[in-house]
Amino acid sequence: MIDAIVIGGAFAGLSAALQLARASRSVLVVDAGQPRNRTSPAAHGVPGWDGVPPADILDRFRADLAGYPTVGILRDRVNGISGRIDAFQVTLDQSDQVEARRIILAHGVRDILPDLPGLSEAWGRTVLHCPYCHGYEVRNRPLAVLAAGPMVAHQAHMLRADWSDDVTLLRNGVEGLDKAALQGAGIRVDDRIPQRVGGANTLKIAFVEGPDMDVAALFVAPRVDLSDTPSDALGVGLADGPMGPYVRTGPMQQTDVPGVFAAGDLATPMWNVNFAVGDGARAGTGCHQSLLFPDFIPALEKEAA
Fold first, then answer.
1. What pTM was computed for the model?
2. In this entry, which stretches build a coiled coil (predicted)?
């Protein structure tokens, strides 16, 4: 039986595996090969890796793990989890079922983008979600924010404050926005309905009526989903974040299911490579401690229904 199966082989999952590897524990990382930031040309704000493509950073992480004989990385997809602490069974798409004493969830979240033609094709390049990750590269240029959820005004105010004095909020039919506060902060509000987006270095936004708009980037705060994921299959407790649910975790990334830890984008309402690496290190360390001392890191209490 494997000591720990890490589900997800991006920044959080590989960081967790490294901590266990350094304790000579047996670890299997199961990775579907679809990291959330795979369309982004560069990761920013990551010390030592600022401006480096995410895929290159992950290649280095995997190369680091290759030096530890107790770690395996399997390109596969998890389609079922059952069992309990010290006796979990994980079913895979293309490989035999594997058993493990502990589970670390690091499979990320599913982004739900607005239904706007061209948006998904530009996602991560000129359609962006995070000013901290991508705002510096488009600073002092025209920017737009697409209303797609409760974070739209928050995004627009942030961008206007420190990244550009030319920010337009595309209301996109969303009601309840404080237009006076937005306009008072120097943010234009466009009531037209976007029809499609496209372009490479500059994004062109076409509307149902009226002239097109050219911007350096369109910011969107997408909803996220964890349904039909390994987290969902295990029934771990969730909390409500501004963009959707995330897994509740304790100080060592433990969940409310004994023997199950969670790290990365699925376990926080704010997403960043740095946070993922740190959460992964805590999850790996917490997992190791629980293998040594089963009562040292208790699972979270279940929330009342």
1. 0.94
2. none
